[in-house]
From TrEMBL:
Residues 189-287 form the HTH araC/xylS-type domain. This is Transcriptional regulator, AraC family. It comes from Sphingomonas sp. JE1. It holds the Pfam family AraC_N. SUPFAM superfamilies: Homeodomain-like. It comes from the Bacteria.
Length: 324
């Protein structure tokens, strides 16, 4: 696999130390040093392949470290903290990612034999060993960056091949279940989407359980297994990440932001914010703005109903991240 990785690194060498679009739908890459706080986000479902260096991902109480010998799959939207590391010989972190589109996964499933579902109470994210076949599929995809006139015709086939190779591996059930109605993973996915879109509203677990067509006790067990968080913890993480992006963007002070993301008590908000990010809201936002002022081209944009901070030299940290 060494030759495959070498060519993949060459193809991705144009990546910058922020999310870099490839011109291929849903495929992005990133290279270089990225501050850890920029990797705290609600991550979109994705397949992440590291080409150099390594990455650590923490979701709830679970932490995974993966490198070019492995790949990472996140099948539902999850708040996570990541950190990246250069390789032992000093090569900078380099990775590519494919954002998962459930409709494409479901379309592929329709052409495959129906296997057994995933294990009961399984997580919505994990790491698996990479295979030569999966690397070959990625090679075909990234070679399109050198032949952009072929992207429209060939990228859909190569995307299906990448998905197929993952489905043939130990994490294949994850893709199958998230795209198949009535599996526990897809039911929890419905509840997750509701929380993400309504995080500022009071949370009623019994209503979420009904939405997922599960008993309250089964809903709790499945939700915790999939996300490594309870529903209330998930909501809190999303609220705090959204609040952080608002504060960095200058969209209000700690009190107004606290109320805006659904807190009834600014004091509780400040306490939970400091516990999550290590500093009180105003000090943390000032520090991060200072970090970005040291770079060039800081801009604020809107994405999926939330603010994001996009610094020209950084991967963006925002609500709805697809971070390679």
């Amino acid at each position: 696999m060494g030759t495959q990785l070498q060519e993949l690194r060459q193809l991705a060498s144009q990546a910058e130390n922020r999310r870099t679009e490839t011109g291929i739908p849903r495929v992005a890459m990133v290279q270089g040093e990225i501050p850890e706080h920029q990797l705290s986000a609600v991550y979109d479902p994705m397949i992440n392949l590291i080409l150099a260096g390594s990455k650590t991902m923490t979701v709830g109480d679970r932490t995974f470290r993966y490198d070019p010998a492995t790949y990472f799959v996140m099948s539902v939207d999850l708040p996570a903290v990541g950190s990246i590391h250069s390789s032992a010989n000093g090569d900078p972190y380099l990775a590519v990612s494919l954002t998962l589109e459930p409709a494409i996964v479901a379309n592929l499933l329709a052409d495959l034999p129906k296997p057994a579902g995933g294990e009961l109470y399984s997580p919505g994210f994990s790491v698996a060993p990479v295979t030569p076949e999966l690397l070959d599929a990625w090679l075909r995809m990234l070679r399109l960056t050198e032949r952009p006139n072929e992207i429209a015709a060939l990228a859909p086939a190569y995307e299906r091949e990448i998905l197929f190779r993952v489905m043939q591996g130990p994490l294949g059930w994850m893709l199958r279940d998230v795209a198949t109605p009535d599996t526990a993973l897809s039911r929890i996915g419905v509840a997750i989407q509701w929380i993400r879109e309504n995080f500022a509203k009071p949370l009623r677990v019994d209503a979420l359980a009904e939405m997922a067509a599960l008993s309250v006790s089964a809903f709790h067990r499945h939700f915790k297994a999939v996300t490594a968080l309870s529903p209330l913890q998930y909501q809190k993480h999303v609220r705090l990440l959204h609040a952080r992006s608002l504060l960095i963007a200058g969209e209000g002070n700690a009190t107004s932001v606290a109320f805006g993301v659904g807190y009834e008590s600014p004091t509780q908000f400040s306490r939970e914010y400091a516990r999550q990010f290590g500093l009180p809201p105003s000090r943390d936002a000032a520090r991060l703005r200072c970090d970005c002022d040291a770079l060039t081209g800081a801009t604020v944009q809107r994405q999926r109903g939330g603010f994001l901070l996009r610094c020209s030299c950084l991967v963006p940290a925002f609500d709805g991240a697809d971070l390679s």
